Amino acid sequence: MASGLAIEAKRLFKAFDGKTAVDGIDLAVPEGSIYGILGPNGAGKTTTLRMLLGIIDPDRGERKLLGHSRPLEVASQVGYLPEERGLYPAMTAREAVAFMGALRGLPLATGRMRAEEMLKANGLADYVDKPIRSLSKGMAQTVQLFGTIVHRPKLIVLDEPFSGLDAINQGRLEHLIRDEAAGGATIIFSTHVIAHAERLCERIAIIAAGKVRFEGSVSEARDRLRPQVRLRTRVAEGSWRSALPGGAHHDDGLWSFELPQAGIEPLLKALIDGGAGIEDLSIERPGLHDAFVAIAGEQAARELADSAAEGEAR
Amino acid sequence: MMGFFYSAFVIARRDFVATVWSRTFLFFLLGPLLIIGLSFLFGSMSGRMARQDVHATVAVVAKQADFDALMAAREHLNPGFGARPLPTLVREEPGGDPAGQVQTLLSNPGKRILAVLNGDLDRPTLTGAISNEGVVQRQMSLIVDQARQQRALAATGGTGPPVAVRVVVTDRSEGALAATRAITARAGQLLLFMLTVLLAGMLLSNLLEEKSNKIIEVLAAALPIDAIFVGKLGAMLAVSLVGIAVWVSGALAGLAFLPNQAGSLPEPAVGWPLFILLVLLYYSANYLLLGALFLGIGSQANSVREVQTLSMPVTVGQMLIFLLASYAVGAFNSPLGLGAAIFPFSSPLTMVARAAQTSELWPHLLALAWQALWVWLTVALGARLFRRNVLKSGGGFSPIRRRLSKR
To answer: B54 with B87: CB under 8 angstroms?
Structure first.
């Protein structure tokens, strides 16, 4: 295993009842990074995370978590928030956080103390000794998140952590993820919301249909596409039209096309010489969404959008 | 890596506290006490009612001399019938219409006559709502026959002195000891069986909470599944022992108030202190064995309905095991007895009976080690099935290898 990697997976394969869920996935998550796994529902994100954590064993392939091929050996250094949240309804918020810490080897008394601190620091002072069943869904998710990190893990694995949270709590979670990373923890999370990955992640893996379609930095993903040019002219026709690149398309008076390899200058000259009358001209670096479409395809992008909508509704 | 037993302890502590500190645990504790109390109440009432119902009164329509002869015969025979005495006889003066008198007597609600005997001793007729060749008919025949014998002997003037059987009482005889210890053996088996039926069934639904609340994913990511199973088993064993302690305390308190109600069992072959210790050990082994099986079966269920569906075959299975162990009482070295001691699920019941009847100790050490091995195997198998069928982890290698590899 290469040093400096919190997670390394090679050719992970998993099938359920003969149906392939994960098909030869490779991952390399650097220590101390925030890493996103991006893909629509059913892409294999959760199965990949479960295999990495040792909840299930891969049918084939290798995995290493913090340098260990047996994930439970490093369970005390790992925090995990599953996609399907769950807490014991009768437990108090304090006990729930402390219990989750105890599962990872944290003494119960320490867990209780830290739980109180975390809950109070996040505006939940009145709910420290309230049973989980009396909390709102958002509060319960926050309690579970605290339970995930109460033992101060080196590696935090979050499966769809933003799902079901309102905008305020999503913002808090982003803040918390950045804080944990700043403290030296490695964060890996799965999401189908591109914006979260784009804002938070240093590196991402784009997964579709059980395969990794891209693995690298967000910047590298965006660099897969040429910058996009948007052009609006006063005059619709003219000799300048022949200077537009082949893939340019016109919609509602706006031309869109990839920045030509030769750069923008030859086109600019043609526009001016041809009297096009430039009203608007911009060159934009493609976003992660565009990169996703280019990498995973239109179909996967549509599924991703549907997944995000489902997550919002949850 | 956290130790296996620490992992199990974390789960056991949570389950134990959650169970014992719940309101429903109070009902759990009170349930058997209520059952025992109601059993005493209804048992006493129905016993009294039964005694009132069963004791028969027979009206004897006869002259005083014949009646006296019948009464003397009854008094002579009655001690031999113990708890089921001969019918009470009441005399009625013969009237002019025998058939009418019989009907009148049988239909008199105040007298509560079961049957009427009329005719003289040589031609007796018994009329009533009784079965031909039934107990009352046979008992009355015996009384009449005895009266006639006495009368015949008196007529010949040859009444010999009654025969007195001389009785010599010894401290013990092996036959009597074996017979009485069999009572202790069966009582021990029944106690173990009842407690296990009452308590181990709870394990069928034990993982349902974690599955329905989705907590199982958090647990499975942190701890080995077999440690989760062992923790749950340990917690429920501890809960059951708390229950037993409360019930035993309740029973002892009850006996303190009702000192004369206590029955006594013959002393077991290994002595009372060791027997009680063995009962506790075999109860624990029985609970863990069946509990591990139930936990494994129950972990496959996804709903309360599925658990309820599983309950019946599980209970039937327990009954069959109890039956097998019952056959072994007093025949421990027979093939059936040895089989019942070796078959892991009947072994605790068989061995507790053995402790009551034989004083050898080494078979118990062997049996407890054997049962512990099977608890471990059952837990490992249950955990493997859980990983395969519920968590959908299709690991193909054996649970033993998995444990050794310390995943």
So the answer is: no
